[in-house]
Amino acid sequence: MTRILDFDQAGIIAAVVGSLIVAGCLKGIIGVGMPVVALPLLSLFIEVKSAAMLLTMPLIFSNLPQALEGGKTGRCLVQLMPVLLGTIPGVFLGVRILLALDADAARTIAGLVLMGAGGITLFAPELQIRSRLVLPTGIAFGFFGGILGGIAAMAGPLVFIFLLAKGLRGQAFTKAASLYLVVSSGLLAILLTASHEFSWRDVAVSTAAMAPVALGMSVGQRMRDKIAPGTFRMLVLIAVIAAGAELARHGFLG
User: Fold this and answer.
1) Which parts of the chain fold into alpha helices (H)?
2) What pLDDT, on a 0 to 100 scale, did the predictor assign at position 110?
3) pTM of the prediction?
């Protein structure tokens, strides 16, 4: 990421900032979905690996207030343990896959992940999990969610389905989902920084990326009452699936 700044490519920097503002606007309107929009936009201008790294700190900071809201954060973290037990090895595996891929393969895989994540979020079935199955199901959803998080900074969609299937709604769901994203994104940032591909300078750039995301969120929050969130969410996810297909096509064709 720092190479972009080193070469002072003003056009790319402006495009990246614009992409982050648009993604922040989406989060401001519907509360979730920032990486699902940000990754395909960013991947038009920078490589997928750099896009994933760039999104780590905004994911942490944008979800932290909701993760801490209402107190009892420790109890919520304990309730998330089944998912986190699966997420930790899943993110490790996802990051190893991401770092091993060349640019075209990374675009193809990221495009497929986008299509899958968008489709899951759009057409997610309403599941109900029996209490005796919470532990194995949580580990499984966390593991595959972690893989998606490691490859494309999208650990959320699968885990959100699990949280809904547990019966979480409203503020309880928002708190658990936000806390999960903070933890999984923090793990992703640590693993990417520990690799030879990124450094603490990249962490600083990712932290600075929170500024355009925050600007977009403030705009989105003002628009929230003027747009039906359900309709907006559906249109955005359809666009994301199409963007994922285009990204995969470009990666496949090289």
Assistant:
1) 2-6, 10-30, 34-42, 48-68, 73-79, 81-100, 103-123, 134-152, 156-165, 170-194, 200-208, 210-223, 229-253
2) 85
3) 0.85
